[in-house]
Amino acid sequence: MIINTSLSVLNQLNSLLSELSTEEYTGKLEVLNGSSIGQHVRHITEFFQCLLEGFNTGTIDYEARKRNITIETDLMYTLGLLKNLCNDIKVVKNPCSPLLIKVSYDDADSEYVETNFMRELVYMIEHSIHHFALIRIGIQENFEHIPVESEFGVAYSTVRYKRELMISEKTR
Question: Cα–Cα 20 to 30 A to 51, which of 5, 67, 93, 151?
């Protein structure tokens, strides 16, 4: 379920990005404090890359993102990257095997916390949806001609809650 949901999240992003032009993808948007949709996408994809790299090395370090400008400026490259991320996630073996995640705050020394790939995929899903909400605002405020799915950028628990409300209202 978690792997399929993470793939679904990446596919949602791929579908939306396929509707954008390069100019829309890279343009600095006031509503996003001067950042672009591409910058948010870079942030999302690099977290997935850190997770996959950490799975291979045994230690995840989200602060070690490459900050690859190509991801935020080359839409076609990014669409290919999303497909590669999906393929890489599909072939992960033993996703519950233990990993460490490196964390540090302020100037404090780094600490290592136990985790596993599946737990971090849960984080990736929630983290991505948070950024999807920001991307959604950027698109709705600047590119009204681009359709955004009603559930894009909305937490799964919120979607489920709204559906349950609608069902209970219909049965009244």
Answer: 151
Q: pLDDT digits over 29-66, tens only?
A: 999 999 999 999 999 999 999 999 999 999 999 999 99
Q: What is the CATH number of the domain that holds 10?
A: 1.20.120.450
Amino acid identity of 79? L
The per-residue pLDDT for range 4-26, each reduced to its tens digit, is 999 999 999 999 999 999 999 99
Torsion, Cα of 7, 12, 14, 20 (10° steps): -170
Distance from the first to the final alpha carbon of the chain: 33
- Does residue 112 register a pLDDT over 90? yes
How far are the Cα atoms of 16, 25, 50, 65 from residue 60, in angstroms, in the given order?
A: 28, 29, 6, 10
> Tokens 């939306």 — which residue?
16
Show the domain range for 165: 2-170
Contact 138, 152 (CB under 8 A): no
Indicate the number of domains in the chain.
1
